[in-house]
Design a protein that fits this description.
3-stranded antiparallel sheet, BirA Bifunctional Protein, domain 2, 427 residues, 8-stranded mixed sheet
Length: 427
Amino acid sequence: MLDPARMDDVLRRGGDVAQVVDAWKGIDERRRKLKGELDTARQHRNTANEKMAKLDKKSAEFAAARDELKALSTRIKDGEGELAQLEAEADKQLFAIPNAPHASVPVGAGDAENPVLHVWGTKPEYAFTPKPHWEIGEALGILDFEAGAKITGARFTVLRAGASRLTRALMNYMLDLHGTHGYAEVWPPAVVRRASLRGTGQLPKFEVDLFKLEVPVGPDHVADNDLFLSPTAEVQVTNLHADEIFEACVLPRKYTAYTPCFRAEAGAYGKDTRGLIRQHQFDKVELVKFVEPHTSYAELEALRGDAEAVLQGLGLHYRVVTLCSGDLGFASAKTYDLEVWLPGQSAYREISSCSNFEDFQARRAKIRYRPAAGDKPRAVHTLNGSGVAIGRTVVAILEQYQQADGTVVVPPVLRPYMGGLERITKA
Protein backbone atom coordinates (compact mmCIF):
# COMPACT_ATOMS: atom_id res chain seq x y z
CA MET A 1 0.00 0.00 0.00
CA LEU A 2 1.43 3.34 -1.05
CA ASP A 3 2.20 5.87 1.65
CA PRO A 4 -0.39 8.64 1.05
CA ALA A 5 2.39 11.20 1.55
CA ARG A 6 3.94 9.95 -1.72
CA MET A 7 0.75 10.12 -3.76
CA ASP A 8 2.14 12.70 -6.19
CA ASP A 9 5.33 10.67 -6.80
CA VAL A 10 3.36 7.78 -8.29
CA LEU A 11 2.24 10.02 -11.17
CA ARG A 12 5.68 9.50 -12.78
CA ARG A 13 4.35 6.14 -13.95
CA GLY A 14 2.06 7.85 -16.46
CA GLY A 15 -0.84 6.02 -18.08
CA ASP A 16 -4.13 5.98 -16.18
CA VAL A 17 -2.49 6.29 -12.75
CA ALA A 18 -3.62 9.92 -12.42
CA GLN A 19 -7.28 8.87 -12.67
CA VAL A 20 -6.86 6.26 -9.93
CA VAL A 21 -5.08 8.76 -7.70
CA ASP A 22 -7.74 11.43 -8.31
CA ALA A 23 -10.47 8.93 -7.39
CA TRP A 24 -8.73 8.18 -4.09
CA LYS A 25 -8.12 11.87 -3.38
CA GLY A 26 -11.81 12.67 -3.90
CA ILE A 27 -12.92 9.99 -1.46
CA ASP A 28 -10.19 10.84 1.05
CA GLU A 29 -11.14 14.52 0.96
CA ARG A 30 -14.76 13.66 1.80
CA ARG A 31 -13.55 11.30 4.51
CA ARG A 32 -11.35 13.91 6.15
CA LYS A 33 -14.07 16.56 5.95
CA LEU A 34 -16.65 14.25 7.53
CA LYS A 35 -14.17 13.18 10.22
CA GLY A 36 -13.64 16.84 11.14
CA GLU A 37 -17.38 17.43 11.29
CA LEU A 38 -17.83 14.40 13.54
CA ASP A 39 -15.04 15.54 15.86
CA THR A 40 -16.79 18.91 16.20
CA ALA A 41 -20.17 17.24 16.77
CA ARG A 42 -18.71 15.02 19.50
CA GLN A 43 -17.30 18.08 21.24
CA HIS A 44 -20.74 19.69 21.08
CA ARG A 45 -22.25 16.51 22.52
CA ASN A 46 -19.80 16.57 25.42
CA THR A 47 -20.60 20.22 26.07
CA ALA A 48 -24.34 19.51 25.92
CA ASN A 49 -23.94 16.63 28.39
CA GLU A 50 -22.10 18.89 30.81
CA LYS A 51 -24.79 21.57 30.42
CA MET A 52 -27.61 19.08 31.02
CA ALA A 53 -25.95 17.82 34.18
CA LYS A 54 -26.45 21.29 35.69
CA LEU A 55 -30.13 21.66 34.68
CA ASP A 56 -33.25 20.78 36.62
CA LYS A 57 -34.46 17.50 35.12
CA LYS A 58 -38.07 18.66 35.47
CA SER A 59 -37.52 21.94 33.65
CA ALA A 60 -38.54 22.75 30.08
CA GLU A 61 -34.95 23.81 29.40
CA PHE A 62 -33.75 20.31 30.30
CA ALA A 63 -36.32 18.68 28.00
CA ALA A 64 -35.26 20.93 25.11
CA ALA A 65 -31.60 20.18 25.72
CA ARG A 66 -32.35 16.46 25.91
CA ASP A 67 -34.16 16.53 22.56
CA GLU A 68 -31.33 18.52 21.00
CA LEU A 69 -28.78 16.05 22.36
CA LYS A 70 -30.78 13.11 21.04
CA ALA A 71 -30.89 14.65 17.56
CA LEU A 72 -27.17 15.38 17.74
CA SER A 73 -26.41 11.78 18.78
CA THR A 74 -28.48 10.50 15.85
CA ARG A 75 -26.53 12.71 13.44
CA ILE A 76 -23.24 11.47 14.91
CA LYS A 77 -24.33 7.84 14.58
CA ASP A 78 -25.38 8.35 10.96
CA GLY A 79 -22.13 10.21 10.27
CA GLU A 80 -20.07 7.40 11.79
CA GLY A 81 -21.79 4.92 9.51
CA GLU A 82 -21.05 7.10 6.49
CA LEU A 83 -17.44 7.55 7.66
CA ALA A 84 -16.96 3.80 7.93
CA GLN A 85 -18.16 3.42 4.34
CA LEU A 86 -15.86 6.21 3.13
CA GLU A 87 -12.89 4.69 4.95
CA ALA A 88 -13.58 1.29 3.41
CA GLU A 89 -13.88 2.85 -0.05
CA ALA A 90 -10.71 4.92 0.49
CA ASP A 91 -8.81 1.76 1.48
CA LYS A 92 -10.17 -0.06 -1.56
CA GLN A 93 -8.99 2.74 -3.84
CA LEU A 94 -5.63 2.94 -2.06
CA PHE A 95 -5.00 -0.78 -2.65
CA ALA A 96 -5.50 -0.13 -6.39
CA ILE A 97 -2.75 2.51 -6.56
CA PRO A 98 0.70 1.20 -7.61
CA ASN A 99 3.96 1.95 -5.86
CA ALA A 100 5.84 5.18 -6.53
CA PRO A 101 8.96 4.80 -8.70
CA HIS A 102 12.33 5.49 -7.11
CA ALA A 103 14.00 8.71 -8.26
CA SER A 104 16.60 6.69 -10.22
CA VAL A 105 13.98 4.94 -12.37
CA PRO A 106 14.16 6.27 -15.96
CA VAL A 107 11.00 7.79 -17.39
CA GLY A 108 9.51 5.85 -20.30
CA ALA A 109 6.27 4.54 -21.72
CA GLY A 110 7.08 0.84 -22.11
CA ASP A 111 9.66 -1.93 -22.47
CA ALA A 112 11.12 -0.44 -25.66
CA GLU A 113 12.49 2.39 -23.49
CA ASN A 114 14.23 0.21 -20.89
CA PRO A 115 17.94 1.14 -20.91
CA VAL A 116 20.53 -1.66 -20.98
CA LEU A 117 22.64 -1.58 -17.81
CA HIS A 118 25.25 -4.13 -18.89
CA VAL A 119 25.81 -7.27 -20.97
CA TRP A 120 27.52 -10.47 -19.80
CA GLY A 121 29.26 -12.84 -22.20
CA THR A 122 28.92 -12.91 -25.96
CA LYS A 123 26.32 -14.33 -28.29
CA PRO A 124 27.21 -17.92 -29.21
CA GLU A 125 28.00 -18.50 -32.87
CA TYR A 126 26.94 -21.52 -34.90
CA ALA A 127 27.96 -23.09 -38.19
CA PHE A 128 24.26 -23.88 -38.72
CA THR A 129 20.96 -22.07 -38.34
CA PRO A 130 20.01 -22.34 -34.64
CA LYS A 131 16.57 -23.73 -33.87
CA PRO A 132 13.99 -22.60 -31.31
CA HIS A 133 13.72 -24.75 -28.21
CA TRP A 134 10.36 -26.29 -29.13
CA GLU A 135 11.85 -27.79 -32.30
CA ILE A 136 14.91 -29.01 -30.41
CA GLY A 137 12.82 -30.48 -27.59
CA GLU A 138 10.31 -32.21 -29.86
CA ALA A 139 13.07 -33.70 -32.02
CA LEU A 140 14.82 -35.07 -28.92
CA GLY A 141 11.53 -36.33 -27.47
CA ILE A 142 11.99 -34.36 -24.23
CA LEU A 143 9.27 -31.69 -24.61
CA ASP A 144 5.83 -33.24 -25.05
CA PHE A 145 3.34 -30.45 -25.72
CA GLU A 146 0.65 -32.83 -27.00
CA ALA A 147 0.65 -34.89 -23.81
CA GLY A 148 0.37 -31.75 -21.69
CA ALA A 149 -2.61 -30.55 -23.74
CA LYS A 150 -4.25 -34.00 -23.54
CA ILE A 151 -3.87 -34.21 -19.77
CA THR A 152 -4.78 -30.64 -18.88
CA GLY A 153 -5.05 -28.24 -21.83
CA ALA A 154 -3.16 -25.59 -23.75
CA ARG A 155 0.04 -24.17 -22.24
CA PHE A 156 0.79 -27.21 -20.13
CA THR A 157 3.74 -29.44 -21.06
CA VAL A 158 5.10 -32.84 -20.07
CA LEU A 159 8.87 -32.82 -19.65
CA ARG A 160 10.50 -36.14 -20.46
CA ALA A 161 13.92 -37.69 -19.95
CA GLY A 162 16.63 -35.03 -20.44
CA ALA A 163 14.31 -32.06 -19.92
CA SER A 164 12.93 -33.55 -16.72
CA ARG A 165 16.41 -34.28 -15.37
CA LEU A 166 17.61 -30.83 -16.44
CA THR A 167 14.74 -29.17 -14.55
CA ARG A 168 15.51 -31.12 -11.38
CA ALA A 169 19.22 -30.37 -11.71
CA LEU A 170 18.58 -26.65 -12.12
CA MET A 171 16.38 -26.52 -9.05
CA ASN A 172 19.06 -28.16 -6.89
CA TYR A 173 21.89 -26.13 -8.41
CA MET A 174 20.11 -22.82 -7.76
CA LEU A 175 19.10 -23.67 -4.20
CA ASP A 176 22.62 -24.85 -3.37
CA LEU A 177 24.18 -21.74 -4.90
CA HIS A 178 21.88 -19.35 -3.06
CA GLY A 179 22.57 -21.19 0.18
CA THR A 180 26.23 -20.23 -0.20
CA HIS A 181 25.09 -16.59 -0.52
CA GLY A 182 23.43 -16.70 2.89
CA TYR A 183 19.80 -17.39 1.90
CA ALA A 184 17.85 -19.68 4.21
CA GLU A 185 15.95 -22.33 2.25
CA VAL A 186 12.22 -22.86 2.80
CA TRP A 187 9.65 -25.05 1.03
CA PRO A 188 6.26 -23.32 1.40
CA PRO A 189 2.73 -24.42 0.43
CA ALA A 190 1.66 -23.80 -3.16
CA VAL A 191 -1.81 -22.63 -2.03
CA VAL A 192 -2.27 -19.14 -0.59
CA ARG A 193 -5.01 -17.05 1.02
CA ARG A 194 -6.46 -13.89 -0.44
CA ALA A 195 -4.88 -11.88 2.38
CA SER A 196 -1.42 -13.15 1.41
CA LEU A 197 -1.92 -12.11 -2.22
CA ARG A 198 -3.17 -8.71 -1.09
CA GLY A 199 -0.12 -8.31 1.10
CA THR A 200 2.32 -8.63 -1.80
CA GLY A 201 0.24 -6.66 -4.28
CA GLN A 202 -1.18 -9.36 -6.59
CA LEU A 203 -4.66 -8.49 -5.35
CA PRO A 204 -6.95 -6.81 -6.00
CA LYS A 205 -5.54 -5.73 -9.38
CA PHE A 206 -4.46 -9.08 -10.86
CA GLU A 207 -7.18 -11.49 -9.75
CA VAL A 208 -8.02 -12.31 -13.37
CA ASP A 209 -4.53 -13.84 -13.76
CA LEU A 210 -4.89 -16.19 -10.78
CA PHE A 211 -6.22 -19.72 -10.46
CA LYS A 212 -8.87 -19.68 -7.71
CA LEU A 213 -9.69 -22.88 -5.85
CA GLU A 214 -13.12 -24.12 -4.85
CA VAL A 215 -12.52 -26.07 -1.65
CA PRO A 216 -15.22 -27.99 0.25
CA VAL A 217 -15.87 -26.31 3.57
CA GLY A 218 -16.43 -28.53 6.59
CA PRO A 219 -14.83 -29.99 9.71
CA ASP A 220 -12.43 -32.12 7.65
CA HIS A 221 -11.58 -29.42 5.11
CA VAL A 222 -9.94 -26.03 4.96
CA ALA A 223 -12.22 -23.52 6.66
CA ASP A 224 -11.20 -20.64 4.35
CA ASN A 225 -12.61 -21.16 0.87
CA ASP A 226 -10.92 -18.01 -0.48
CA LEU A 227 -7.79 -19.81 -1.70
CA PHE A 228 -5.62 -19.57 -4.82
CA LEU A 229 -2.74 -21.40 -6.46
CA SER A 230 0.30 -19.23 -5.92
CA PRO A 231 1.59 -17.25 -8.92
CA THR A 232 5.07 -16.87 -7.37
CA ALA A 233 6.87 -17.87 -4.17
CA GLU A 234 7.26 -14.17 -3.46
CA VAL A 235 3.74 -14.41 -2.01
CA GLN A 236 4.43 -17.22 0.43
CA VAL A 237 7.90 -16.20 1.52
CA THR A 238 7.05 -12.52 2.05
CA ASN A 239 4.03 -13.50 4.11
CA LEU A 240 6.16 -15.68 6.38
CA HIS A 241 6.54 -12.51 8.44
CA ALA A 242 3.13 -10.87 7.95
CA ASP A 243 1.91 -9.14 11.13
CA GLU A 244 5.36 -9.49 12.74
CA ILE A 245 7.90 -7.07 14.18
CA PHE A 246 11.62 -7.75 13.65
CA GLU A 247 14.36 -6.56 15.94
CA ALA A 248 16.88 -4.64 13.86
CA CYS A 249 19.69 -7.00 14.88
CA VAL A 250 18.19 -9.86 12.84
CA LEU A 251 18.03 -7.88 9.59
CA PRO A 252 18.65 -8.43 6.75
CA ARG A 253 16.66 -11.66 6.63
CA LYS A 254 17.16 -13.61 3.37
CA TYR A 255 15.21 -16.59 2.01
CA THR A 256 15.27 -18.79 -1.06
CA ALA A 257 12.51 -21.18 -2.08
CA TYR A 258 11.52 -23.46 -4.92
CA THR A 259 7.84 -23.54 -5.83
CA PRO A 260 5.63 -24.47 -8.73
CA CYS A 261 3.83 -21.35 -9.96
CA PHE A 262 0.44 -20.98 -11.65
CA ARG A 263 -0.81 -18.09 -13.78
CA ALA A 264 -3.85 -17.86 -16.00
CA GLU A 265 -2.05 -15.27 -18.17
CA ALA A 266 -5.42 -13.75 -19.00
CA GLY A 267 -3.79 -10.51 -20.10
CA ALA A 268 -1.32 -12.26 -22.43
CA TYR A 269 -3.69 -13.87 -24.93
CA GLY A 270 -1.92 -14.69 -28.19
CA LYS A 271 1.61 -14.12 -26.83
CA ASP A 272 4.28 -16.85 -26.83
CA THR A 273 1.84 -19.56 -27.77
CA ARG A 274 4.66 -21.95 -28.72
CA GLY A 275 7.14 -23.50 -26.33
CA LEU A 276 7.83 -23.01 -22.64
CA ILE A 277 8.08 -19.22 -22.37
CA ARG A 278 4.54 -18.55 -21.17
CA GLN A 279 3.04 -21.62 -19.50
CA HIS A 280 0.15 -21.78 -17.04
CA GLN A 281 2.31 -23.92 -14.72
CA PHE A 282 6.04 -23.30 -14.33
CA ASP A 283 8.83 -23.60 -11.79
CA LYS A 284 10.94 -20.95 -10.10
CA VAL A 285 13.55 -20.55 -7.43
CA GLU A 286 12.81 -17.32 -5.61
CA LEU A 287 14.87 -14.89 -3.55
CA VAL A 288 13.25 -12.67 -0.88
CA LYS A 289 14.84 -10.15 1.48
CA PHE A 290 13.60 -8.19 4.51
CA VAL A 291 15.91 -5.23 5.16
CA GLU A 292 16.21 -1.90 6.92
CA PRO A 293 15.14 1.01 4.67
CA HIS A 294 18.53 2.73 4.54
CA THR A 295 20.17 -0.44 3.13
CA SER A 296 17.52 -1.51 0.62
CA TYR A 297 19.10 -0.17 -2.57
CA ALA A 298 22.49 -1.66 -1.75
CA GLU A 299 20.62 -4.91 -1.05
CA LEU A 300 18.91 -4.64 -4.46
CA GLU A 301 22.30 -4.52 -6.20
CA ALA A 302 23.43 -7.55 -4.18
CA LEU A 303 20.20 -9.39 -5.02
CA ARG A 304 20.70 -8.74 -8.72
CA GLY A 305 24.25 -10.05 -8.41
CA ASP A 306 22.99 -13.25 -6.78
CA ALA A 307 20.55 -13.84 -9.65
CA GLU A 308 23.24 -13.07 -12.23
CA ALA A 309 25.55 -15.59 -10.57
CA VAL A 310 23.16 -18.36 -11.64
CA LEU A 311 23.39 -17.42 -15.32
CA GLN A 312 27.13 -16.82 -15.17
CA GLY A 313 27.65 -20.23 -13.58
CA LEU A 314 25.67 -21.79 -16.40
CA GLY A 315 27.66 -19.85 -19.01
CA LEU A 316 24.52 -18.27 -20.50
CA HIS A 317 24.84 -14.99 -22.39
CA TYR A 318 22.43 -12.35 -21.02
CA ARG A 319 21.93 -8.64 -20.47
CA VAL A 320 20.48 -6.54 -17.64
CA VAL A 321 17.96 -3.76 -18.27
CA THR A 322 16.51 -1.18 -15.88
CA LEU A 323 12.73 -1.00 -16.16
CA CYS A 324 11.43 2.45 -17.03
CA SER A 325 8.51 4.06 -15.21
CA GLY A 326 5.93 2.84 -17.72
CA ASP A 327 7.10 -0.79 -17.58
CA LEU A 328 7.49 -1.04 -13.81
CA GLY A 329 5.52 -3.74 -11.99
CA PHE A 330 2.57 -2.69 -9.82
CA ALA A 331 4.30 -3.12 -6.44
CA SER A 332 7.85 -2.25 -7.44
CA ALA A 333 9.76 0.97 -6.77
CA LYS A 334 12.69 -0.17 -8.95
CA THR A 335 13.29 -3.30 -11.02
CA TYR A 336 16.14 -4.83 -12.99
CA ASP A 337 15.27 -7.49 -15.57
CA LEU A 338 17.79 -10.13 -16.55
CA GLU A 339 17.20 -11.04 -20.21
CA VAL A 340 18.80 -14.18 -21.58
CA TRP A 341 19.74 -14.54 -25.24
CA LEU A 342 17.70 -17.08 -27.24
CA PRO A 343 19.49 -17.69 -30.55
CA GLY A 344 16.66 -19.82 -31.96
CA GLN A 345 14.36 -16.82 -31.66
CA SER A 346 17.07 -14.18 -32.19
CA ALA A 347 15.80 -12.28 -29.15
CA TYR A 348 16.52 -11.51 -25.51
CA ARG A 349 13.81 -12.73 -23.15
CA GLU A 350 13.25 -12.02 -19.46
CA ILE A 351 14.47 -14.77 -17.16
CA SER A 352 14.52 -12.89 -13.85
CA SER A 353 13.14 -9.71 -12.33
CA CYS A 354 14.86 -8.24 -9.26
CA SER A 355 12.80 -5.61 -7.46
CA ASN A 356 12.85 -3.31 -4.45
CA PHE A 357 9.32 -2.74 -3.16
CA GLU A 358 10.50 -0.37 -0.41
CA ASP A 359 7.73 -0.35 2.25
CA PHE A 360 4.86 -0.97 -0.21
CA GLN A 361 4.36 -4.66 0.62
CA ALA A 362 5.34 -4.25 4.27
CA ARG A 363 2.60 -1.66 4.82
CA ARG A 364 0.01 -4.00 3.29
CA ALA A 365 1.23 -7.12 5.13
CA LYS A 366 2.10 -5.26 8.36
CA ILE A 367 5.76 -6.34 8.43
CA ARG A 368 7.73 -4.03 10.69
CA TYR A 369 10.96 -3.70 12.62
CA ARG A 370 12.10 -1.81 15.69
CA PRO A 371 15.20 0.30 14.88
CA ALA A 372 16.31 0.26 18.53
CA ALA A 373 14.99 -0.91 21.89
CA GLY A 374 11.98 1.16 22.86
CA ASP A 375 11.58 2.70 19.37
CA LYS A 376 8.24 2.78 17.62
CA PRO A 377 8.04 0.02 14.96
CA ARG A 378 8.28 1.08 11.33
CA ALA A 379 7.84 -0.78 8.04
CA VAL A 380 10.73 -2.81 6.68
CA HIS A 381 11.69 -2.78 3.02
CA THR A 382 11.09 -5.98 1.05
CA LEU A 383 12.94 -7.18 -2.04
CA ASN A 384 12.33 -10.07 -4.38
CA GLY A 385 14.00 -11.66 -7.37
CA SER A 386 13.70 -14.79 -9.47
CA GLY A 387 16.79 -16.80 -8.80
CA VAL A 388 15.89 -17.79 -11.58
CA ALA A 389 12.88 -19.03 -13.60
CA ILE A 390 13.65 -22.70 -14.20
CA GLY A 391 11.55 -23.29 -17.32
CA ARG A 392 13.08 -20.32 -19.11
CA THR A 393 16.54 -21.49 -18.08
CA VAL A 394 15.77 -24.85 -19.71
CA VAL A 395 14.80 -22.88 -22.83
CA ALA A 396 18.05 -20.91 -22.76
CA ILE A 397 20.20 -24.03 -22.31
CA LEU A 398 18.45 -25.88 -25.13
CA GLU A 399 18.94 -22.95 -27.48
CA GLN A 400 22.42 -21.69 -26.48
CA TYR A 401 23.95 -25.16 -26.04
CA GLN A 402 22.38 -26.80 -29.13
CA GLN A 403 24.64 -28.73 -31.49
CA ALA A 404 24.58 -29.33 -35.23
CA ASP A 405 23.52 -32.98 -34.71
CA GLY A 406 20.45 -31.88 -32.68
CA THR A 407 21.88 -32.81 -29.29
CA VAL A 408 22.36 -30.36 -26.41
CA VAL A 409 25.50 -30.03 -24.32
CA VAL A 410 24.88 -29.98 -20.56
CA PRO A 411 26.57 -26.99 -18.84
CA PRO A 412 29.49 -28.35 -16.79
CA VAL A 413 28.14 -26.99 -13.49
CA LEU A 414 24.99 -29.13 -13.87
CA ARG A 415 26.69 -32.42 -14.70
CA PRO A 416 27.19 -33.48 -11.06
CA TYR A 417 23.42 -33.07 -10.59
CA MET A 418 22.73 -35.24 -13.66
CA GLY A 419 24.90 -38.24 -12.88
CA GLY A 420 27.77 -36.94 -15.00
CA LEU A 421 25.63 -36.61 -18.15
CA GLU A 422 27.47 -34.41 -20.66
CA ARG A 423 24.99 -34.30 -23.50
CA ILE A 424 21.23 -34.63 -23.92
CA THR A 425 20.47 -36.99 -26.76
CA LYS A 426 17.24 -38.32 -28.24
CA ALA A 427 15.05 -39.97 -25.61
